[in-house]
Every structure is written in structure tokens, then in C-alpha cells.
Write a structure and sequence with these properties.
Methylamine Dehydrogenase, Chain H
Length: 132
């Protein structure tokens, strides 16, 4: 994975995912970057300043298509629906809690402090809502 600055300079190159990255999202402070891979079925949390991977979660088969991060709560859209994991720096999630079954959502985003929205694209992201 390569991260570039807004000036067009390469900030870092890190190995992590196998194959293409399906989605990226920053936390609200811009300190952490979350990446999703449909190929290797993982989501990874990186320090934006250094490129160090501080957390990863594997969803088994089916891939991760979308990610969003709010505080320590990581939301993931997978083949089986939307799930959540608690980000603990320096570790990996033992399991991901599946919150709702859906037909292969591709995007997931937090919408306010108490709900998450998901859908097939950013344009139809309010296709479904889930109260937290």
C-alpha cells in the first residue's frame, strides 16, 4: 500500500494486503487510516504518519469491501453483511461481531453518534441503517 501527500509526494509504502485495496477511510482526527481488502479478507488499521500497521481483523471467506472507523469501533461491510470489531492497538481481533445480514453491502459509514449506514455504493449508502 502506498500513501501519498496532498503535494504528490509518497509518504510511505508498506506491505500488508494481498491484492487490491477495496476501500480506505481515515478516523476523524486523521491519525489513523483503515484499509479493506476483498482479496485477503482483512481490514487493517495504520498510523497515517508512519504507515505502521497497529491492528488487523480477518473475516474469513468473502472479503472486506468497506470500512469506517469511529474511536475504537471499526465497522466493516463483508459478503455476509455489516460487522464490527473493537480496535486494540498492537493486536488482531479474535472475532468480528456480525450485526446484521445484508446482501453484500459495498460501503459502510458512520452517520452521527448512534447509527451506521450501508449500501452498494456511496450514492445509495443510506440504503440501510443500523442503530448502534
Amino acid at each position: 500500500m502506498e500513501l501519498w501527500t496532498h503535494h504528490g509526494e509518497r509518504a510511505f509504502t508498506k506491505l500488508g494486503h494481498v491484492g487490491a485495496v477495496a476501500d480506505l477511510a481515515f478516523d476523524s482526527a486523521g491519525a489513523l487510516l483503515v484499509s479493506a481488502s476483498a482479496n485477503d479478507c482483512t481490514a487493517r488499521v495504520w498510523r497515517a504518519a508512519t504507515g505502521d500497521c497497529v491492528f488487523h481483523v480477518s473475516v474469513g471467506q468473502g472479503g472486506v469491501f468497506g470500512v469506517a472507523l469511529r474511536g475504537t469501533l471499526l465497522a466493516l461491510s463483508t459478503r455476509d453483511g455489516v460487522g464490527f470489531a473493537e480496535v486494540k492497538e498492537g493486536g488482531a481481533a479474535a472475532a468480528m461481531a456480525r450485526a446484521v445480514a445484508a446482501d453484500r453491502p459495498r460501503k459502510v459509514r458512520f452517520a452521527g453518534p448512534d447509527r451506521v449506514v450501508f449500501g452498494q455504493s456511496v450514492d445509495d449508502c443510506p440504503l440501510c441503517e443500523l442503530a448502534l
